[in-house]
Write a structure and sequence with these properties.
Blueprint (H helix, E strand, L loop, with lengths): L10 H23 L4 E2 L1 H10 L10 E5 H14 L4 E4 L12 E5 L3 E3 L1 H6 L5 E12 L6 H18 L12 H18 L2 H12 L4 E6 L9 E2 H4 L3 E5 L2 E5 L3 H9 L18 E3 L6 E2 L3
Parallel strand pairs: 2-6
Antiparallel strand pairs: 1-2, 3-4, 4-6, 5-11, 6-7, 7-8, 9-10, 11-12
Helix pairs in contact: 5-6, 5-7
Length: 286
């Protein structure tokens, strides 16, 4: 979710420093064990266009082949420092998303969806497992749409009042329909049951050379050669790994990616509640 709320002076920079520190831990663990990862989405865009964060951005996204993701989960248990932790839906029932979240302990970063789901988030990095796709002449788009179906059902299961309906002129009707589905899902299934159906949908019967993020909002398949092997790019004060053909990757996602968007389109994920680790819990809902 994006927001037009503004960060108090200096806090966005603190959030970015905390996230960059967590990215350094991901990079360290992956290099130590020969695991593949790449900076994903807007993080890759920031590295190419700004050699770091997009100035108004407040999150970091990382992608990994799903096999490397599972290995990272195993190593992270012992090799992350005490003030950083990895959270997954299967081990943390408060999680409401189907990917991994790296948390900076002793911080608070509660977005609207997390608040609705009853999840006390910290400042985080999203770690997305990518899957091999079945290609039926569509580069795996239909496969991604199948996984997205279960992603959306889990979202409806956990979030009763989504912000995605706010911009609809017929919002009351849409909210009523959403609430009915939300209630029915709680009657007929469970979060764990939906998660297992999602994981089953992720498995390709005939894996192709196309990859995708099964929980992304839109179905973007990428060819193996676009993603791997990753290459090095500068990001803030370090060097991290990026998709092999980052120009193709960013062009597919953002088209003319070097052009800055107008100021009115420079959205952030400003949370409802924020504590950057100094014990000052700021309520930004007002």
């Amino acid at each position: 979710m994006v927001s037009d709320r503004e960060y108090p002076p200096g806090t966005l920079e603190r959030v970015q420093r905390i996230e960059a520190n967590m990215l350094a831990h991901i990079d360290r663990i992956c290099r130590a064990h020969g695991l593949i990862y790449w900076i994903d989405g807007g993080t890759c865009l920031g590295a190419v266009r700004h050699e770091g964060f997009i100035p108004w951005d407040d999150d970091i996204d990382v992608g990994m082949p799903i096999e490397d993701f599972h290995a990272f989960v195993k190593y992270a248990k012992d090799e992350l420092p005490d003030d950083v932790s990895l959270h997954l839906m299967e081990t943390d029932p408060t999680q409401y998303v189907l990917w991994g979240k790296l948390y900076a302990e002793n911080t608070v970063f509660v977005e609207h969806d997390a608040f609705e789901a009853g999840c006390e988030e910290c400042v985080f990095i999203d770690v997305f497992p990518y899957i091999r796709l079945d290609d039926k002449g569509d580069h795996g788009v239909r496969h991604l749409k199948r996984t997205q179906f279960w992603t959306k059902l889990i979202y409806i299961y956990r979030i009763k009042h989504p912000t995605v309906l706010d911009r609809l002129s017929w919002r009351p009707v849409a909210q009523l329909g959403w609430s009915v589905i939300h209630t029915l899902l709680h009657i007929v299934t469970s979060q764990d049951g939906l998660r297992r159906r999602f994981e089953k949908a992720c498995k390709a019967k005939n894996p192709s050379e196309w990859w995708g993020n099964p929980s992304a909002a839109r179905p973007y398949p990428f060819h193996h050669d676009t993603l791997m092997p990753p290459v090095e790019l500068p990001f803030e004060d370090m060097t991290v790994r990026a998709p092999h053909d980052w120009d193709r990757f960013l062009s597919d996602l953002y088209h003319d990616y070097m052009e800055l968007p107008p100021k009115e389109d420079r959205h952030v994920h400003t949370p409802l509640i924020l504590d950057v680790g100094d014990g000052n819990r700021i309520d930004l809902r007002a």
